[in-house]
Design a protein that fits this description.
Protein name: CoA transferase
Family: Belongs to the CoA-transferase III family.
Organism: Iamia majanohamensis
CATH architecture of the largest domain: 3-Layer(aba) Sandwich
Shape: elongated
CATH class of the largest domain: Alpha Beta
Radius of gyration: 25 Å
CATH topology of the largest domain: Rossmann fold
Distance between the termini: 35 Å
GO molecular function: transferase activity
Keywords: Transferase
CATH superfamily of the largest domain: Crotonobetainyl-coa:carnitine coa-transferase, domain 1
Largest sheet: 6 strands, parallel
């Protein structure tokens, strides 16, 4: 196994060793941000509520060996679990002591909640001038929608994603995975590291709506300047034809793209349209989309998947099988790269990227609720003996994302 996916409690410290991150966020976007930092060596202290902890502990599929949610094993990996009741003055004091020496706080309460808890970012940064407070919400810390609950579905609907996703005569489609949360996790991790690199304590405002909006490319510009609205095209895109998924005679599916003109012409020759002026350029193929897609679909439908892939490889054109998760687990390329390492017996995605000189490392899967509370509080006592009791902590409202 390569260093890039080395697992276990012992091993290289990672490039973020010495950085402490306090993660009191829940579900996927905020915890995902902290997970990326943990993967590269940060000491991530996961602060969880006493009544069940992070939502992902009870979400989705469970490991049949120990009945622990697979979502939690992924999102909690590399983190130490501490239980604190932020409605309790003593526990709120422990939280403040953690933040007094931390580099990053990741939270995803609705805007204003952190302040009502007595953890105002301005006060936290005044007490710890290097602290980066990463706030992950549905719509950001300000604006007319700021107070709305932050669910990815809302962002997927409002960002334009759902409106362009689906078949031409079908309904707008939401993604069947936690797409927006995962994208926002990467955005938040990137922005957090930029802020840490600045050396200045500050607030990072990351949100689901604008993170997914970034994925829309020039579509806002095209609407503003050209009054262009992209239609739903199934698996197609408006500026390159053919591009989509096509069913083979054996029932398997293949994905094909021709986003380079030289590739497109080789595919046109392969399927019998060489020299046809209706397919002579990008614009011509877009104009005659039905002809191109129909001809390619018919050509693919006469062949099984191996034959299609072999023909495209011989033509130096882009085609790939549409994988199931079973195919992915058996993919020799992913196996050779160690891209799906086993972490405490659970196969899961490896590191998001590889560093040649200072690689990251997955240390452990999500740990039991409160497994590290005593150890972390003992560290606090050693670092700041006798500090931390806070009087009159306000109640804890629900988190947003």
């Amino acid at each position: 196994m390569s260093d890039a996916t080395d697992t276990g409690a012992e091993g290289p410290a990672g490039p973020l060793a010495g950085m402490r991150v306090v993660d009191c966020s829940t579900v996927v976007a905020g915890p995902g941000c902290a997970r990326y930092l943990a993967d590269f060596g940060a000491d991530v202290v996961k602060v969880e509520r006493p009544d069940g902890g992070d939502t992902t502990r009870a979400m989705g599929w469970r490991d049949p060996r120990d009945d622990v949610a697979l979502w939690w094993k992924l999102e909690g990996r590399g983190k130490r679990s501490v239980v604190l009741d932020l409605k309790d003055p003593t526990d709120l004091g422990h939280m403040r002591r953690l933040l007094a020496d931390a580099d990053v706080l990741v939270e995803n309460f609705r805007p204003g909640t952190l302040e009502r808890l007595g953890l105002d970012p301005a006060e936290l940064i005044a007490a710890n001038p290097r602290l980066v407070v990463t706030r992950v919400t549905g719509f950001g810390q300000e604006g007319p929608y700021a107070g709305r609950p932050g669910f990815a579905t809302l962002a997927e609907a409002m960002s334009g994603f759902a409106g362009i996703n689906g078949e031409p005569d079908g309904a707008p489609l939401l993604p069947p995975i936690a797409l927006t949360d995962e994208i926002t996790a990467i955005v938040a991790a990137f922005a957090t590291m930029v802020a840490v690199h600045s050396g200045v304590g500050q607030v990072v405002d990351a949100n689901l709506y604008e993170s997914l909006l970034q994925m829309m490319g020039p579509l806002p510009s095209a609407k503003a300047l050209l009054d262009y609205d992209q239609p739903r095209l199934g698996a197609g895109i408006p500026y390159s034809v053919p591009r989509g998924t096509y069913r083979c005679v054996d029932g398997r599916w293949v994905a094909i793209s021709t986003s380079a003109e030289s590739v497109a012409q080789r595919v046109m020759a392969l399927i019998g349209l060489a020299g046809d002026p209706r397919v002579a350029s990008f614009s011509a193929r877009v104009e005659h989309r039905d002809l191109v897609d129909g001809t390619l679909a018919a050509w693919v439908a006469e062949r099984d998947l191996p034959a299609v892939l072999a023909a495209f490889e011989e033509a130096h054109a882009a085609a790939a099988p549409v994988h199931t998760m079973g195919d992915i687990l058996a993919d020799p390329h992913l196996a050779a790269r160690g891209a799906l390492p086993e972490v405490d017996g659970v196969p899961m995605q490896g590191l998001v990227a590889r560093l040649s000189a200072t690689p990251g490392r997955i240390r452990w899967a999500g740990r039991p609720l409160g497994a590290d509370t005593e150890a972390v509080l003992a560290e606090l006592e050693a670092e700041r003996p006798g500090e931390g009791h806070v009087e009159g902590a306000p109640p804890l409202p629900g988190s947003a994302v």
